[in-house]
């Protein structure tokens, strides 16, 4: 049974993007090379790969927000989510989508926020009001 995912991301500036993940988000590093580095992203392996080809991200409307079609993220416990949201706000980080509650009072109610790393990769952090609704059909 798998317990963690692996994701490889294209980055324009390895040093700046690595600093964002380690200093701003608190990720630790693993193996590395001059053109890539592995991160412990909340218990999952994310690999940053240096490249010149990083594309713009299209969006779709979701509950009033322009959600980046290509994004990734993690689901945190409510207290973890609030702590992270406050830390990102205190750091003056630009939110692609401000922290808020989506689908309030409905199945799937969740706290969500979106940021981008220095290479434009969109990251969502969310927390569900009820963990039983993570996979519930709406």
Can you describe what's shown?
- The protein is an alpha+beta fold.
- The protein has helices at 14-24, 78-90; strands at 6-11, 28-33, 36-41, 44-50, 59-62, 65-68, 71-75, 97-102, 110-116, 122-128.
- The protein has a 4-stranded mixed sheet, covered by helices on one side.
- A hairpin with a 2-residue loop joins strand 2 and strand 3 (36-41).
- It is globular, with a radius of gyration of 15 Å.
- The two termini are 27 Å apart.
Topology:
Blueprint: E1 6-11, H1 14-24, E2 28-33, E3 36-41, E4 44-50, E5 59-62, E6 65-68, E7 71-75, H2 78-90, E8 97-102, E9 110-116, E10 122-128
Parallel strand pairs: 1-4, 7-10
Antiparallel strand pairs: 2-3, 3-4, 5-6, 8-9, 9-10
Q: Label the structural class.
A: alpha+beta
Rg value: 15 Å
- Approximately how much beta-strand content do the residues carry? 35-45%
Strand arrangement in the largest pleated sheet: 1-4-3-2
Characterize the biggest β-sheet. Answer: 4 strands, mixed
What is the number of E strands?
10
| Quaternary state of the chains | single chain
Low-confidence stretches: none
State the end-to-end distance.
Answer: 27 Å
**What is the approximate shape?**
globular
Task: State mean pLDDT (0 to 100 scale).
Answer: 92
Number of helices: 2
Summarize the amount of helix as a percent range: 10-25%
